[in-house]
Amino acid sequence: MKMSKQFPLNALRVFEAAARLGSFTKAGEELGMTQTAVSYQVKLLEENVGEPLFLRRPRQVSLTEVGERLAPKVTEAFETLQEAIATARGDTETSLLINSTATFASQWLAREIGSFQFAHPNIAVRLVANDAIIDFSKESVDVAIRSGKGDWPGLVSHRLMRVEFTPMLSPALAETIGGVHTPRDLLKLRIIDPRDPWWLLWFRAAGVEDPDLAGRPASRLGAQAFEARAAVAGQGVAILMPEFYNDDVALGRLYQPFDLRCSDGHDYWLVYPYGRRNTRKIRAFRDWLLGEIKPDSFR
User: In what residue span(s) does the HTH lysR-type domain sit (predicted)?
Assistant: First the structure.
């Protein structure tokens, strides 16, 4: 049997794009093909495999079970081919796009990423910070830092640090009420983002069952790092991860009035698609990050 018959590369390339983008039309736009040509190539591959790979619905396609199993392996194979071609051409520089939560990016990653770039000067790093859950199949992101339980289908997950939270505020603000001596004293002050579920968990653990947080003016700054800046400015009490604010504590801008810390079971994770787990730049970043942050090193 001829190699072209055994390995329908054109059809596989079309399948990879359609599976990643979830659309024959978008795959055609990316590859410079008509939707009819994309559909034809997918049909050829399905005949070669002997199983349908997509469920066709009006204006929508989705992978079948066989397609779900095939897609990550095809993506991994094309990543390997791209790396091999780049090496053969002598293209030594590549780029790594990292998507991270805003707080982890500002309070840890942005300060430490220089050591990764020093160790890997041929990898150009681009960092995008937001709290949106990105879809690896539709966005050109290589790795992501997420908050959660680590159970995302199709992704490899490495736990980076345990998330524990506690109230923090400026010493000057505490002095305006003669100091914070009991958990209930915090309720004499403005609570930054009282709708944050962390607050209710912490107050209940502290023995305050009726903090009446719902009755307070709502305020949401969008990220823990922004809430910390507001707390430093004396605008209220924020509920934070203390490990991220050691510098502010050392400089007397923030303090933690109680030892009690709580967790909601959501930790920080490094994630990337299973099909790209052997990509060189992803392996390099993973090894560096796990070396810098030992699991469980943050309590």
Answer: 7-64
Cβ–Cβ under 8 Å, residues 238 and 227: yes
Those residues whose C-beta lies under 8 Å from the C-beta of residue 19, and which sit 6 or more positions away, are 53, 63, 67, 70, 71, 74, 75, 137
Q: 181 in helix, strand or coil?
A: coil
Let me know whether 153 and 270 are in one domain: yes
Last residue of a domain, one of 65, 88, 111: 88
Amino acid at 221: L
The H-or-E segment that residue 96 falls in is strand 94-100
The pTM for the full model equals 0.70
In a shared domain, residues 158 and 283 = yes
Q: Which residues on adjacent β-strands are paired with residue 62? A: 55
Do 203 and 183 contact (CB within 8 A), yes or no? Answer: yes
CA distance 202 to 266: 15
Range of the domain at 190: 166-250
pLDDT tens digits for range 35-46: 889 888 999 898
Which residues are paired to 161 by β-bridges? 268
Per residue in 163-209, pLDDT (tens digit) is 999 999 999 999 999 999 999 999 999 999 888 899 999 999 999 98
